[in-house]
Amino acid sequence: MDLLANLSLGFQHALTFNNIAYAFIGCLLGTLIGVLPGLGPLATIAMLLPITYSLSPDAALIMLAGIYYGAQYGGSTTAIIVNLPGESSSVVTAIDGYQMARQGRAGVALSTAAIGSFFAGCTATLAIAAFAPILSEAALQFGPKEYFALMILGILLATVLSTGPVLESLGMVILGAMISLVGTDVNTGEQRFTFGLTQLYDGVDFVPLAMGIFGFAEIVRNLRSEERSLVTQKITNLFPTRDDWRKMTAPILRGSALGTFLGILPGGGAALASFASYTLEKKISRTPEEFGHGAIAGVAGPESANNAAAQTSFIPLLTLGLPSNAVMALIVGAMMIHNIQPGPQVMTSNPGLFWGLIASMWVGNLMLVILNLPLVGLWVKLLTIPYRFLYPAIMMFCCIGIYSIKNDTFELYQAALVCVVGYGILQLKLPPAPMLLGLVLGPQVEENFRRAMLLSRGDATVFFTSPLSGTLLAIAVVALIFMMLPSIRARREKALQE
Amino acid sequence: MIRLMTIAAVVAATFGVGMARAEDWPTRPVTWVVPFAAGGVTDTTARKIAVVLADKLGQSVIVENKPGAGGIVGTEGVAVAKPDGYTVLYASGGPMAILPNLKKGKLSYDPVKDFAHVQGITSSSQLIVASPNAPFNTLPELIAYAKANPGKVNFGSPGIGTAQHFAGELLAAAADIEMTHIPYKAGTSQMVDLMSGVIDLSFDYTSVIKPYSDAGKMKVIGATGPERLPSFPDAMTVVEAGLPDAVNVGWTSVALPAGTPQEIVDKLSGALQASMADPSVVEYFAINAQTPITDKGPKDMTQFVVEENEKFARIVTAAGLAE
């Protein structure tokens, strides 16, 4: 059995005292950094990259990987406790997680996230070990037109995500996509809406926008009301009840499967996975009205999905040498400094490193559960701190996080401007989450559409004649019809009553 | 009161400048600005050299990433930095020669006048790679195929105005063939599309290509340098194919803001030359197929930047790429 032999080789590497220690340091650092709002894995790994140069390559990679998924864990903590998603993939967790926290169920939400992530992590690790080479071939099936179709499907699904009216969330997705138009036009190199500012040539970054709305604008809104505690009801049990377990099992399974698949695709897999899982859970739930008001499935599904995706996003990196997101790109740098070229040959040329890293993912996930479950009580205590002490700290960490992305104060000005606009958005009760999705997926829709059109020399029918993109677009159309159905039905019922 | 404070500040500043003498440089840590994101080849090369350089200068060298706009943001920052030798730029062909010509009149710096060019660091020629199923295996076959099937060949690059994009434009112009440019973002997404045959051709550096070609995921059909690469002895150069005008080599160098005292420029150049001879740096260059250009000191490097700017001005005009 190749798989068993490989895994045992991996565990031999992962379970040395040194590597366990580095996995632990990575997980701990990642959790801490993830909990601090604004400081995501990207900033942390960028700051810590120089330290890893003096380590052995496998220790360096194991530690960086630990930081990466540790921060995914920690990031959902801030999303749940203070409604501040540090990353695009935890935007969805904030929706129901924060509501659960306000109902005094923060502990349950945090444990659910931890349990879901652990299960998803184990599934994804096994999937990587068993299918990495085959799965990387699947990623190769996705060309520009297939990506375009997938992104369109993703955006359509996201519009049903919000609790508000479909039209409003669609409008916010479009607003996000319009903001994403700022920057250099990929096909011509022309500047769009940059007003001569070179800092805008690469477009508007996710972090200042997310922090401006979820951090700064939210703080302004909270301060306008009387001194309030973050929790509206008494804190109940910290750990899930039997009923909670029953409600979270199926979403965790579905989320893990969805995340494992979407994570393989280069480009925004984790974010798309969590949005897709949320939509899926809401659609098949018998009680869709609970979503947006603290549904446990709305935390369990997306958290499992984004953690599974975060791990399978190592597949394109390790098998094709393709970093699927900015964090992976940094990990490529860490490999290169140790004279390892990431690519298809890593598996054969450095089997110890490859399988050691995979085994360490499992070890790391176990550590995270052990590390996080006892901490749940501590995080929940944070909620009882009066807001007037909490918000200056949130602001400060947001500022550090925003500055650290590009070492540029311009990003802070951007966040300050977004705060003003974001405050208006919050006052108008418009959903901000779809806007962030529009910002993340907008450029990919545009790039892939225009690339496909360049390749087909302007023939738009290619989107329908290719089987994969045709199918995805067909699903999108069906989803659109389903989305309209309840409102059509509701209107008809109303008409009948009259 | 404000006037008094201003006078005090001016006096203090003057006094301060008088205190820091150029021959004592460096008396505090030096910041080395890399205008690209952490983790890329440029960044890792700078960090590898910085460790040794700190040793040679007797001061720590802090690598600071200031990414944005293909290197323009970081380069702009150093152009207006205080010319005291404590802010150093990792310059390269993109922001120093290609982009200033592509975006003529739109950049806030002049690559020649606003910098004191200190030392050449690396030069790397690119490989010409094709999709594994492409109906051509060598450079002459590609040219023959493109001539027989006009408008059919697509080549990808990491974006408009990159050295890889210009490699394609140069080859098309020199061989008089028609190729459609498909721009991608960042350095790698075009590699997936090349492997799966969505695009036919791409141009990139050895460090990027080698893992794929070793695994048989793409085939190397040529090289853009004047000489064959030791790691790819079978890849015919554009010069051998009779197209000397298609030569395209990516380079990096170190620069300081214009007006930096000559002593500092010379001392930094010497320290860099010594660092580049260090075995750890030599090994890193070899692995990444980067040729050190240690012989290009302050004078030669300035001359080289002038020549590169003239070359890209010609290409931009000829290919009608000016924005």
From TrEMBL, chain A:
PANTHER family: TRICARBOXYLIC TRANSPORT PROTEIN. The chain crosses the membrane at residues 20-49, 108-135, 147-180, 256-278, 314-340, 352-373, 385-405, 462-485. This is Tripartite tricarboxylate transporter permease. The keyword Transmembrane applies. It comes from the Bacteria. Residues 20-437 form the DUF112 domain. Keywords: Membrane, Transmembrane, Transmembrane helix. Signal peptide: none annotated.
